[in-house]
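Re-running EamA family transporter to confirm reproducibility after the cluster update. Everything else is unchanged from the original entry.
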Amino acid sequence: MSVSFVLSSRARSSAALVVAGVLWGTGGLSGALLGQLAGLHPLAVATYRLLLGGVAGLLYVAVTGGLRTPTRAALRRLLVVGGLFAFFQASYFAAVSLSSVSIATMTTIGSSPIVLAVVSAVRSRRVPRPYTLVSLVGSVGGLVLLRWSAEAPHLAGIALAFLAGTGFAVLTLVTAKPVPGLDSMATTAYGCLVGGALLTPVAAYLGMALPLHLDVLFVAAYFGIVPTAAAYAAYFRGLAGAHPVLGALSALLEPLTATILSVAFLHERLSAPALTGAVLLVAALAVGYWRPEPRCPSAAPAAAACRGSRTDAGRR
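Result of re-run:
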């Protein structure tokens, strides 16, 4: 495999991760709007997100001729993904109820790449590269500044948010290794349906009545299609050629996009620390996405080994 192909594969994977992060950023606004219009509990909103995203993904799979009986390996993967979807959503919204949206989001999204970096370091028995550490520290620091809240944190809320971040990290690790016959959209569709089904009993108890009004249905459809089905499919697609830590870092584009949308459409004003955090977050993510390749030595055996490591990196 040539170096140019590896770099092209990395570029496509990075682009898919960026798309996923940006699309996720529209989910906060559309999810809040759906909850407001329909009078739904946040957990019911999350349940609708998974169910509608699963239906949208399944329709796409059916139209493109991808419906087929899953293998045992694919079925195991889908059950795990669905369980992680449900665990992640339930833990996150429980954290929100005990703390706040700002603290829960910051802890959840910020802890995920840290967990992945630690796991990767333990697995490989080597310290992460300097560019990874710079991107990691800068991204988390930028997120703290962007979503900083002066309110006192609730320890139980922090713990649940960390569980949510760990669940997202495990989801990233699990889906980073593809299963034959199971593409990114099929993983998203069936995984969302399984996760939504697991959350439905609790959400039904809290109330899931959805008013059949045009504006409610439009927001619900957007919520299920764009920041859920399309975003997670792009994320799983990007993980096929990127390191899991980079995948988790792409999730930090979600609060950045949400902040930009709030400024543009809700006329919110950014404080100086939040503006600094946004700039730092963009710079740190840029380091993670466009870090330079290590130079290969001129000796033939070492150069061949270096090319092989590049190929493996492009596949991660």
